[in-house]
Design a protein that fits this description.
iron, mitochondrion, lyase
């Protein structure tokens, strides 16, 4: 999840439940333990310097669209444009997702697919993986837009996505806390760990910002934990997204406190709106 392309749980308190296939991260993340290195999301989380790396998405800038040697199926080479505005200047207006062929090539480079046998992730599953990942990323952005709504209304400008990084091997403090609570109180919390984590850096419109690289915007880091949810009434798996601003500053802490207390205030005191 969270991978875009640039050319040059009970624990889910965000309330965003997304239904689709498959039941866990389609790139083979473990839902029972936190992994590291090549066991993480193969598209995003590499540390080897293969070709020139784009600092905004931590991906090689020029990953081939060409069919891999030994590949049996013809995979689409068309890329899908997301609804997420790009924050880095001088490039396309919106982020683009990689094509299924690019994704396949990326997974081979990360050792997630045997180039001779295609084992672990079948070739015929790649297109559905791309669809699910794109779908979940769009859901993440909608959650962020909800968090940013009051700032967008104040400035009459929309936020943009500047940068993102996958961190599948780094448990967020919140995810760790939920897991401990699930162990101690299994009837109220789930001990299941997220199968992935991303940090997204969003540009929030702010005329008072002193950011010289992005004038008129302030950088806000979001933490996103991805959980596998139970099957829905139709037997389809679901995903839970826990999206929230990182506790990097007082404003983010205040926004999170307000988000947590508003439903309680509404329940016990009602709304002031007539």
């Amino acid at each position: 999840m969270g991978w875009f392309w640039a050319d040059s749980g009970k624990n889910s308190t965000s309330g965003n439940k997304i239904t689709d296939k498959p039941s866990e991260c389609p790139l083979g993340h473990s839902t029972s333990k936190v992994t590291s290195g090549a066991d993480g999301c193969p598209v995003l989380h590499g540390s080897n310097a293969q070709n020139e790396i784009n600092p905004f998405n931590n991906m090689p800038k020029n990953l081939s669209h060409e069919k891999h040697i030994g590949q049996k199926l013809e995979l689409p080479k068309d890329r899908t444009t997301s609804s997420i505005p790009k924050g880095n200047p001088g490039e396309e207006e919106f982020w683009e997702y990689p094509s299924p062929q690019q994704m396949y090539n990326a997974m081979i480079r990360k050792g997630k697919i045997d180039p001779n046998t295609g084992e672990e992730i079948p070739e015929d599953a790649v297109e559905s993986m791309v669809f699910v990942h794109n779908f979940l990323n769009e859901g993440c952005w909608q959650e962020i837009l909800d968090w940013e709504k009051k700032y967008s209304e104040q400035t009459e400008m929309e936020p943009k996505l500047l940068q993102f990084m996958g961190k599948p091997s780094q448990l967020s403090p919140r995810a760790r806390c939920f897991s401990i609570l699930g162990t101690l109180f299994p009837s109220k919390f789930s001990a299941e760990l997220p199968f992935d984590r991303h940090d997204w850096v969003v540009l929030r419109p702010d005329p008072t910002s002193s950011d010289t690289k992005n004038p008129g915007f302030r950088q806000v880091r979001y933490v996103i934990d991805f959980y596998g949810g139970p099957d829905d009434e139709d037997g389809l798996p679901t995903f839970n997204l826990d999206v929230r601003p990182a506790l990097d500053n007082f404003t983010n802490a205040k926004d999170r406190f307000t988000r947590w207390t508003e439903p309680i205030i509404q329940e016990y005191f009602g709304s002031d709106k007539k």
